[in-house]
Amino acid sequence: MHAARRLAIITALTFVCLPSSGRAQGIDFATIDVQTVQVADGLYVLMAGPAQGNIAVSRTPG
Asked: What is the largest distance, in Å, between two alpha-carbon atoms of the chain?
């Protein structure tokens, strides 16, 4: 029973703290300009600026 209660408390705290951390950064997501850069055939990098980071995307033909 202790483990279930601990898991419920951790889950509740996660849902309470996560939304506020996004607002604390002060990022206006409506103004972000995402650029797509082709690195190789089927491999792209999505770049959204220095504060947001980059994401690699692999595309297969089909």
From this structure: 53
* Parallel/antiparallel/unpaired status of strands 54-58 and 35-40: unpaired
Q: Are 42 and 60 in contact (CB under 8 A)?
A: yes
What is the domain extent for residue 30?
A: 2-58
Nearest to 33, CA basis, from 21, 50, 57, 19:
50
**Contact (CB, 8 A) for 28 and 9:** no
Tens of pLDDT, residue by residue over 1-42, are 577 777 777 777 776 666 555 555 677 777 888 889 999 988
> What's the pTM?
0.49
Distance between CA 55 and CA 46 in Å, rounded?
Answer: 5
Number of domains composing the chain: 1
